[in-house]
Specification:
alpha+beta, eight-stranded antiparallel β-barrel, 9 strands
């Protein structure tokens, strides 16, 4: 619900609403198990603000776990059994095959991707955002559905400093959903991508959320392309934007990604990211299939050959 993955993420959420919070993850876990209660009254007020329960901190301090879960479900429309399974720590253990791409294709997406999308801020109109999206297998996620076992981290180096967003990945038969939450500005973001086949050399779709650098609230959707890096390439620290007309292929080359046909890569990426007019921005699968064919050939002939 909060877009958090790790205990550290949860603690960060508490610090956002109260930098002086006394929240302690270990004590909170014992509290849910009925073995202890937080000692400081303020932590209950922090819970009330963070979860937006419409109840006071005093109510949370006095309620039992069942009433607490009922209030969460009623307020936010969650499934009660699912929340109780998480609270009681009885989500099923992962099977050995869950992380095997041959039996669960979504696990094969784990890795790091460089992302390119149109700049959202009016201060950088016409430029491309350079970001990075990483998927990792997260055994602490609820394992009721093996198609929901990936955690995502998005990093973007803004002129004001690096911003981070975290979340989980869900897969349907045809698409991937990446639901992100930025602790830096306390806002949700979403990517809806075509679901790829191995080797998943490129992902593409839409990236939606409020504009990062803006003096007012602006809701933005842009096309996004994410290009996979081989594991031999370390994560980069790059400028926030590419200037108008800059070569994405040249940017990819700076991190050491082998490219078979840089000119064709620039041509197809430009065509994919170009927005059509007419009141609706709609991506057909044929456009993504063209990118897939290009980057899969590059991966198999250039990348895989050099990383074996």
């Amino acid at each position: 619900m909060l877009g958090t993955i790790t205990r550290k993420d949860l603690a960060a959420q508490f610090r956002l609403i109260n930098p002086a919070t006394t929240f302690d993850v270990e004590r909170a876990q014992k509290w849910l198990q009925g073995r202890a209660r937080p000692r400081e009254r303020q932590v209950y007020e922090d819970w009330a603000r963070l979860l937006d329960l419409g109840r006071s901190g005093h109510w949370i301090a006095e309620c039992d776990v069942d009433a607490f879960v009922d209030a969460l479900c009623s307020r936010h429309g969650h499934n009660r059994d699912g929340l109780l399974r998480q609270a009681n720590g009885i989500a099923r253990a992962p099977k050995a095959t869950d992380a095997d791409p041959s039996t669960n294709p979504i696990a094969g997406l784990a890795g790091t991707y460089l992302s390119y999308s149109h700049a959202w801020s009016r201060y950088f109109r016409g430029q491309l955002i350079c970001g990075e999206l990483s998927f990792r297998i997260e055994p602490r996620l609820p394992r009721l559905d093996p198609q929901r076992q990936l955690a995502a981290t998005y990093v973007q180096n803004l002129p004001t400093g690096a911003t981070h967003a975290y979340g989980a990945v869900s897969a349907s038969r045809r698409t991937l959903g990446v639901d992100l939450h930025s602790a830096d500005i306390d806002e949700p973001y979403n990517m809806r991508l075509f679901r790829p086949a191995p080797p998943a050399s490129v992902l593409a779709g839409f990236f939606t959320g409020p504009t990062f650098l803006s003096s007012e609230t602006e809701l933005t959707t842009t096309r996004v392309v994410l290009i996979r890096l081989p594991s031999t390439i370390s994560r980069r620290s790059a400028a926030a934007y590419l200037p108008p007309g800059a070569s994405v292929a040249a940017d990819l080359s700076t991190v050491g990604l082998p490219l078979r046909d840089p000119a064709e890569i620039d041509r197809q990426l430009s065509a994919f990211l170009e927005v059509e007019r007419g009141g609706i921005d709609q991506l057909g699968s044929e456009r993504y299939e063209a990118l897939t064919a290009l980057f899969d050939r590059n991966w198999l002939s250039e990348v895989a050959r050099t990383t074996v």
